[in-house]
Amino acid sequence: MARNESLVALNGTQISYIGHDGTDIPEFLGDTYGHFARRLDLSFNLLRSLAGLEMFTALEELIVDNNLLGNDLLLPRLPNLHTLTLNKNKLTDIEDLLEHLADVTPSLVYLSLLGNEACPNQLVSPDKDEDDYQRYRYFVLHKLPQLKFLDTRKVTQKEMMEAQARGAFMKVVKPKSEAPPKETRSESQPLPYTPLPRGSRDAKNHKGNRG
Question: Using 50, 70 and 90 to split pLDDT, how confident is the model at 186?
Answer without folding.
Answer: very low
